[in-house]
Design brief:
- By secondary structure, the protein is mainly α.
- It has a single domain (2-247), classed as Ferritin, core subunit, four-helix bundle (Ferritin), CATH 1.20.1260.
- The protein has helices at 2-27, 36-64, 70-75, 95-116, 122-150, 154-167, 179-186, 193-211, 233-241, 243-247.
C-alpha cells in the first residue's frame, strides 16, 4: 500500500505541476494583455488551472499525511521536487509565445483529462470530470488565437511561426513515459500516453493547417522535467511563487 501511495502521490504531482507552473506564467500577464478581453481571458484560464491544482494537491496532502497541505506541496518543495514539463516554464517572450505555449499544452491536456475521467481512482476521475469543460474552452481559445495570428498579417505570422519553432521541440516530453506514469497506466489509474499522442499530433496538424503554420522539423529537446530536472527559469518562477510562504511560514488567509 505504501508503494502504491508513493506512486499515486508522484502521479498527482505530474498532473498538478504542469497546471501550477503554467498558471503562474499566465498570472504574470495580468494587466499586460493586448486587450482587456484577452487579459481577462488569460487570467481566468490561470485561475482555472490553479483550481485544478488545488484538487490534485489536496488529495496528495491527504495521502501524504502528517502536516502536509495543498500549500506546503505547492509552495515548499525545492526545484528538483517539481514534476512539470519544460514547455510550461518557458517565458512570456511575446503574445505569440504565450499563445503557442498555451495551445501546445491545451492540445495535450484535454485528451489527457478525457482519459482520466475513466480512472479507477475516484478522486482523479472526479477532478478530470470537473475540469474537462474548462479545458475545452482553453483549447478553443488558444486554437482561435493560433489561427488569427498564424493566418493574420505578415508580422503576426512570422512571430507565431518563430514561437512555434522554439516551443514545439518541448512537446515530445509529454509522451516520454516515466516509471510512475507506467505504473499508474498499468493499474488503470493513469492515462495511456501513446493514444493521447496520436490525438495530439492530429490536433496539431489540423490547427496548423488552418493557421497557415508549418510543423517544425527540429528534433525533440532532451528534457527530464517530469523527473525533476529543470531549466534555470524555474528558479526565477519559484522565487516569486514561493515568496510569501517562505517569508511568512505557516501563514493563513
Amino acid at each position: 500500500m505504501e508503494n502504491k501511495n508513493k506512486s499515486l502521490i508522484d502521479y498527482l504531482l505530474i498532473l498538478g505541476d504542469n497546471s501550477l507552473i503554467l498558471g503562474h506564467r499566465l498570472s504574470e500577464l495580468c494587466g499586460h494583455g493586448p486587450s482587456l478581453e484577452t487579459d481577462i481571458a488569460l487570467t481566468n484560464i490561470s485561475l482555472d488551472l490553479f483550481g485544478q491544482v488545488r484538487s490534485y494537491f489536496q488529495y496528495a496532502a491527504e495521502l501524504t499525511g502528517g502536516e502536509a497541505t495543498e500549500d506546503t506541496i505547492a509552495m515548499k518543495r525545492v526545484d528538483r521536487e517539481y514534476r512539470h514539463t519544460w514547455l510550461v516554464e518557458q517565458a512570456n517572450k511575446d503574445f505569440a509565445y504565450v499563445i503557442g505555449r498555451q495551445f501546445l499544452f491545451d492540445a495535450f491536456h484535454l485528451p489527457l483529462l478525457e482519459q482520466l475521467v475513466n480512472s479507477k481512482d475516484e478522486m482523479i476521475a472526479a477532478v478530470a470530470a470537473k475540469s474537462i469543460k474548462e479545458s475545452r474552452y482553453h483549447l478553443r481559445f488558444s486554437s482561435s488565437w493560433m489561427e488569427r495570428l498564424g493566418d493574420g498579417t505578415q508580422e503576426s505570422h512570422q512571430r507565431m511561426q518563430t514561437a512555434i519553432n522554439d516551443l514545439y521541440p518541448f512537446t515530445y516530453e509529454f509522451f516520454e513515459e516515466t516509471a510512475t506514469e507506467k505504473i499508474m497506466h498499468e493499474a488503470g489509474i493513469g492515462a495511456n500516453l501513446k493514444t493521447i499522442e496520436t490525438t495530439y499530433r492530429q490536433t496539431i496538424k489540423d490547427v496548423f493547417a488552418k493557421a497557415n503554420l508549418e510543423i517544425p522539423s527540429a528534433p525533440p529537446r532532451k528534457t527530464d522535467g517530469k523527473k525533476g530536472i529543470h531549466s534555470e527559469q524555474l528558479g526565477f518562477i519559484l522565487a516569486e511563487l514561493q515568496y510569501m510562504q517562505r517569508a511568512y511560514p505557516n501563514m493563513t488567509w
